[in-house]
Amino acid sequence: MTDKKKLLAATKITCSKCGKEDFVSFFADGHRNYFCEECLKSMHHNRKKGRVKKVYDKRKKSDLYEFICDLCDCFRRATYSPEIIQGKIYCKECLSKRKLEERKKNRKNTTIIEKSGSIKKIDG
Q1: Which of 7, 82, 95, 102 has its CA 20 to 30 A from that of 75?
Q2: Running DSSP on this structure, what letter comes out for residue 105?
Q3: DSSP per residue over 41-94, as a string?
Q4: pTM
């Protein structure tokens, strides 16, 4: 059995975004803008950023939410609806990190005096 990629002819293109020369597996006629693989991935990633897409999963028979977390910048597919705070989308892990950091920032300086007479100062 022959590999299909070996049979396809590669056309040399110049990326319209970064100017890097790359090869594509189709005939490029030169009338359109062509992009290298890295620029194409970043454009797709940026297009999905800031949006939550609700998708039905046939296997699980439930709704899934597809989104990109604004803090960790990762694509997530989850059963829960993500938190949207001040227009930014957060996954559960990043939301818990963000809340922990806010609690630490809002914590006041605390002094603990033990029975032995030693003093511990806890900075927030």
Answers
A1: 102
A2: H
A3: HHHHHHHHTT--EEEEETTTTEEEEEEE-TTT--EEEESSPPEEETTEEE-HHH
A4: 0.53
Nearest to 22 by CA among 31, 35, 32: 35
What are the boundaries of each domain within the chain? 1-48
pLDDT digits (tens, 9 = 90+) for 25-40: 877 787 788 888 888 8
State both tokens at 17.
């975004």
Instruction: Report how far residue 86's alpha carbon sits from residue 89's, in angstroms, rounded to the nearest whole number.
Output: 9
Q: Which of 106, 74, 104 is nearest to 89 (CA)?
A: 74
Phi and psi of 93, rounded to 5°? -65, -45
Residue 64 pLDDT exceeds 70: yes
Q: Is the model's pLDDT at 59 over the cut of 80?
A: yes
Residue 111 belongs to what H/E stretch?
Answer: strand 110-113
Long-range pairs for 18-23 at CB < 8 Å and ≥24 separation?
A: none
Count of helices and strands (H, E) across the chain: 3, 9
